[in-house]
Amino acid sequence: MSFTPGRVSALSLRATTPDDPLARPLLDELAYEYQTRYGDSSDLSRFPSGEFAPPHGTFLLLLEGGAAVAGGAYRRHGPDTAELKRIWTHSAHRRRGLARRVLAALERDAAARGYTRVYLTTGPRQPEARCLYLATGYRPLFDVTADPESIGPLPFEKHLETPES
């Protein structure tokens, strides 16, 4: 699927599982990216699919024309904390704000399930992700002036507004 600048398209969110065939192209591209940047994509198989399912988690796809263009998930990290994982925008659909949409949807869903905090880590060789989280109100739990390669995974957190607040 190609993107035509200026085209207005209908986007929809689908709660599903990492095993959904619609997720496969997105996750395959993410695995390739991890392999290219880090020489390892094993993190994608680190957690069973069930950890990204209700009632403690979710796996979302952002669809356009029936195809996944972005996605992301969270799992339970603690009683009040959800851990974001696998936030990804297909390379043909970047620079459209799709990751921000997925991030906002994951935050809303987590807050609706009673989580008050979101935690995540991103790799030191993913400056795009680091910029996304900083731009969307995530607090870095590391020294932002240090060389990311000297830190390893870069942790972030964000406190969520609960639906009743």
Structure description:
There is one protein chain. Helix content is 26%, strand content 29%. With 165 residues, the chain is α+β, with helices and mostly antiparallel strands. A 7-stranded mixed sheet has the order 1-2-3-4-5-7-6, with helices on both faces. α2 (98-112) links the parallel β4 (81-89) and β5. The longest helix is centred in the N-terminal third of the chain and has 15 residues, at 24-38. The protein is globular and about 40 Å long. The termini are far apart.
Give a topology summary.
Elements (H helix, E strand, L loop, with lengths): L10 E6 L7 H15 L19 E7 L2 E12 L2 E9 L8 H15 L4 E6 L4 H9 L3 E2 L7 H4 L2 E6 L6
Parallel strand pairs: 4-5
Antiparallel strand pairs: 1-2, 2-3, 3-4, 5-7, 6-7
What features would you highlight for this structure?
disordered N terminus; seven-stranded mixed β-sheet; 165 residues
* Count of separate DSSP helical elements: 4
- Describe the strand arrangement of the main beta sheet, using strand numbers: 1-2-3-4-5-7-6
| Helix content range | 25-40%
Extended strand count: 7
Largest sheet: 7 strands, mixed
- The low-pLDDT segments are 1-6
- The averaged pLDDT comes out at 90
* Overall body shape: globular
Q: State the order of secondary-structure elements, H for helix, E for strand.
A: EHEEEHEHEHE
Supply the helix-strand structural class: alpha+beta
Q: If you compute it from the alpha carbons, what radius of gyration comes out, rounded to the nearest whole angstrom?
A: 15 Å
- Measured between the Cα atoms of the first and last residue, the distance is 40 Å
Per DSSP, what share of the residues sits in E-state strands of 2 or more residues?
A: 25-35%
